[in-house]
């Protein structure tokens, strides 16, 4: 495996990793602009823009964009997160130049035809409806809002229907002008790729993009709080979050190991205690979500109305207990799970391209895998116990509840029990 | 890549494929027994059994099962479908023997401790609640029920809460005795695997299993009908199904190509017409589901209450139109998408192991990839148009509706419009 990095004169970075045994490639463009780069009145525009990229350019109609990739059996898609908008493709070896040409076209030259904007508004309103109907989607939006209230970081990616209903062509063009700058773009490719050919083509396609830095996103501040809604559902869905390190933080892997040992797999404490021993839920897990300047330790579960109180008690008690008696064996197991997951993930070209883009965004270089492994291995049981003990003291807690949640504790009760 | 197949003297089959560039392996045991092998009063027991496998054996507690795999960074899971129950693991190269030992242990020697059965009953009831809260899960259960009413093939995998509440230790042991026979088991492994070592170990672990054929599952008959439920949701969720070839049928790839061209990707007719042109939905797709003796062409979408009628009209009109004017270019594109998807899927060890098991189940051999490609390439536009024209005439239609669906057509109206 060979990682190569180049930089165009306008600042756009290109990173590739050849996987010589593969006949296909994954490639994409990651733009460091997402939901948290929106002003309050812009909420939802980064995602709207991502949709409009597929609606037509000066060279291709929407249909021709889809056909250009699918004619050769490829796959084209995009996503918007809080810090990124990504446009990516999976194609066979010979079709890499075609895929890059299409990606450049939709990113740099969208038409923004007013009639298309109206149609796509309808699609996005339907997408918002779909999220609202899916409890374990909507509850994470609410958790984010409770954790970072009145901040870009706490708003949804899709935006509220009233904003989505109002965006104009000028709004879209303005966001592109401000945020789609070459210094904030990474082209990443993995699999059957020819680095030099990609760099030459990228220079042709993106070389004329004018540099110019946009104002950085507003720093996020974990505040905490709660949002709950009674809804007639079979399950009471509960998610909680605590402030945790961001992805540039030295302590990131301590948080990852803690999340794994607390609720990362079948052998984790929450799975064993809440599901295996008490049978109170089907799904329960802890995850560490990371951003550039903050992070969240989140715990999610779904249970029946009558079991909700007990599930919350047990969860809080497991968090408290972790600070006292987390064992070296559990920490070693979580480290091994993270390392093996990393190595197995690298077998996929799509995961590898995503990882390259993400690492360039974070570090502006690709740390050797040994460096990452060493950071994971350096996490010991003392650090994990300390992390657990300080969990609720760091920035309070956020709580989101949806369903028959009359019996749920308030966020202050939760914090009291954690501190007791 | 080298596929190797062996058979123990009791009939259990072992199939492996070495992927020399990988450092990890995917392996599992696929048992040809699932929901459709249940008697009516047993509905849900195959899935209950899958859960109980993880609850403890004579050698390992539930915790020790989880730790045995996760201690080495591996991943262990299982699923139950209508025709299969699968237990599988992902591990690094050196841990393949350990993983196979754990898989054999949970499959062949589960404790069925009555106290554990009670706890797991609670977990499964929670899982049923979760499905009920997820519209695009529950609607496919209803579609299956409408397509195959009063048949094992039409029942849910999880079973109804009243059955799940009643299963006993004897019920579980009885299902194992009847259905977990070596002739109906395939051990499949792909990635960093040593075939001979796996065969030797499989012989030690499974060699004593007594052969004995269970009664075959009741043949499925596509009948059609509808199930609808008004529920206060943002979206009206609609799924329809038509009878289609099973996976042993010569016409299988005609149906796959039709599904791709009708609603398989961004360039498909349903995506272009219903979403891109009219903006009526976020998600819309057609899929071909296959079983040993039947199949279903399914179409799913979600839309607002006021757009539901129009979405159904457009969908029906696209199916009708496909019989008249599907083009050679569209068929060629769908063929290429299926082929490229197949080739890219083979880059993953987990997909490859799953495919080996599935092919052994269907054909009792692994057809060379060129043979599969040739079958896909043999599908021409005439066959696809003929398939489209006969779609509703083959076995009627099934319709499932959930949400604000007052404005939805009845299944007979749908059929009339298709026939008009």
SSE inventory with pairings:
Two copies of one chain form a homodimer.
Chain A: E1 2-7, E2 13-18, E3 24-31, H1 45-53, H2 62-70, E4 75-80, E5 85-92, H3 96-108, H4 114-132, H5 135-147, H6 161-164, H7 169-179, E6 185-191, H8 195-206, E7 225-230, E8 236-244, H9 252-263, H10 269-277, E9 284-290, E10 295-303, H11 308-325, H12 328-345, H13 349-363, H14 369-377, H15 381-389, H16 391-395, E11 397-403, H17 411-419
Parallel strand pairs in A: 2-6, 7-11
Antiparallel strand pairs in A: 1-2, 3-5, 3-6, 4-5, 8-10, 8-11, 9-10
Helix pairs in contact in A: 1-7, 3-8, 9-12, 9-15, 10-11, 11-15, 11-17
What do these coordinates show?
By secondary structure, chain A is α+β, with helices and mostly antiparallel strands. Chain A is 46% helix and 19% strand. Chain A is built from 17 helices and eleven strands. Chain A has helices at residues 45-53, 62-70, 96-108, 114-132, 135-147, 161-164, 169-179, 195-206, 252-263, 269-277, 308-325, 328-345, 349-363, 369-377, 381-389, 391-395, 411-419; strands at 2-7, 13-18, 24-31, 75-80, 85-92, 185-191, 225-230, 236-244, 284-290, 295-303, 397-403. In chain A, the strands form two sheets. The first copy, chain A, has a six-stranded mixed β-sheet with strand order 1-2-6-3-5-4, sandwiched between helices. A five-stranded mixed β-sheet of chain A has the order 7-11-8-10-9, sandwiched between helices. In chain A, helix 9 (252-263) crosses helix 12 (328-345) and helix 9 (252-263) packs across helix 15. The relative contact order of chain A is 0.16. The mean pLDDT of chain A is 96. At the A-B interface, helix 2, strand 5, helix 4, helix 10 and helix 12 of A face helix 2, strand 5, helix 4, helix 10 and helix 12 of B.
